[in-house]
Amino acid sequence: MDSTRSDRAARPGGTVLSLLVFCLISGFLLFVTVPIASLFLRITPEAFIQSLQQPVVVDALVLSLATASVSTAIVVLFGTPLSYVNARVRYRGREIVDTLTDLPIVLPPAVAGIALLMAFGRRGVVGEFLDGLGINVAFTTVAVILAQVFVASPFYIRQARASFEAVDPQYEDAARTLGASRLAVLFRVSIPLAWSGLISGAILSFARALGEFGATIMFAGNFQGRTQTMPLAIYTTMQGDLSDAISIAIVLVIISFAVILAVRYTTRRAV
């Protein structure tokens, strides 16, 4: 009898808590979905298709996909060995290396852009030397790639390191006892076992590179067909044809949604 009364007394509190949780979740979902849904409601399918045929939209889409792909490949090429070393080797100053690796995540994009300009600009620390060789980096497509690599690399390196740390060292030790070199162990044991995490990190890095704005506009400029990526094209077309800006934004939303699905799929396969 006493337990029945206590259950009845607890029900009103549980109902209130459930209602509060429902309101919080519903409010957050509305906050996220309403602005995204508004993009699709403010443009007709005909206007969307017509905008995708505009030169400014086509140039921005092609340039963004190309530069983001190249920057992701660079991040994977250089970030994989760095992540493996930081996951397996203990050396003096490793925490400093990890901190510097993560710094672009919290660094304001404008700071990243001006830092790259001071380093690789025509009068920059490195750029002045390159200018003497006839090589100009700032305000070129190369500058777009460098800006994307700078801001997107931590997303891959952090994920890659966590993936390598999750690999049981006993598998690597067993391969070494069989005569495999460290490089062979990396390519035949460590990378295959950490593959899903590496793919997830690469996808996230690609998405971050695709959405980069602040560092790109300061270091590479906003020149159509050369440095104007999709985020920069949105900024430019908003001052003229809003339909083009909405269309580019919808394309980025679709790509972002696909990225999230891809990451979830690869993560679920790993589990």
From TrEMBL:
<feature type="domain" description="ABC transmembrane type-1">
    <location>
        <begin position="61"/>
        <end position="263"/>
    </location>
</feature>
<dbReference type="InterPro" id="IPR005667">
    <property type="entry name" value="Sulph_transpt2"/>
</dbReference>
<feature type="transmembrane region" description="Helical">
    <location>
        <begin position="185"/>
        <end position="207"/>
    </location>
</feature>
<keyword id="KW-0812">Transmembrane</keyword>
<feature type="transmembrane region" description="Helical">
    <location>
        <begin position="103"/>
        <end position="121"/>
    </location>
</feature>
<dbReference type="InterPro" id="IPR006469">
    <property type="entry name" value="NifC_ABC_porter"/>
</dbReference>
<dbReference type="InterPro" id="IPR000515">
    <property type="entry name" value="MetI-like"/>
</dbReference>
<feature type="transmembrane region" description="Helical">
    <location>
        <begin position="61"/>
        <end position="82"/>
    </location>
</feature>
<comment type="similarity">
    <text>Belongs to the binding-protein-dependent transport system permease family.</text>
</comment>
<keyword id="KW-0764">Sulfate transport</keyword>
<dbReference type="Pfam" id="PF00528">
    <property type="entry name" value="BPD_transp_1"/>
</dbReference>
<feature type="transmembrane region" description="Helical">
    <location>
        <begin position="133"/>
        <end position="157"/>
    </location>
</feature>
<protein>
    <submittedName>
        <fullName>Molybdate ABC transporter permease subunit</fullName>
    </submittedName>
</protein>
<keyword id="KW-0472">Membrane</keyword>
<keyword id="KW-1133">Transmembrane helix</keyword>
<dbReference type="InterPro" id="IPR011867">
    <property type="entry name" value="ModB_ABC"/>
</dbReference>
<keyword id="KW-0500">Molybdenum</keyword>
<feature type="transmembrane region" description="Helical">
    <location>
        <begin position="16"/>
        <end position="41"/>
    </location>
</feature>
<feature type="transmembrane region" description="Helical">
    <location>
        <begin position="245"/>
        <end position="265"/>
    </location>
</feature>
<keyword id="KW-0813">Transport</keyword>
<dbReference type="InterPro" id="IPR035906">
    <property type="entry name" value="MetI-like_sf"/>
</dbReference>
